[in-house]
Here is the input.
Amino acid sequence: MIGKLNHVAIATADLAEAVKVYREMLGAEVSAPLDLPRHGVTTVFVTLPNIKIELMAPLGDNSPIANFLARRPAGGMHHLCFEVDDITAARDRIIAAGGSALGDGKPTTGAHGKPVLFLHPKDFCGTLIELEEV
Here is the structure.
């Protein structure tokens, strides 16, 4: 059902410093920052030959990654994003198998302008999963 791994997301309190690390220390190509108010984050993507890394920082006081960073001030891996052909069918299959989507379970528009939804980490070995329709 799931397709390829689209990206690994890393939460950071200091996006400029994280960009500096990936761009200057590792020599990676890094996109311009993009504010995603609906998701409460500012994000950039590090493009690698086989995958992307999403670096994200809180946008506003009610950011959903604020609690994550409160527990892990240095930041860390936040979620894995997998591609799916049909996000609604994937969600329905996961729910029928006993999994759960976060929020109201309805897809929203993600950073790539495509439908996304998040799955509860309790159902996936403690890892937050994002599905992105491609």
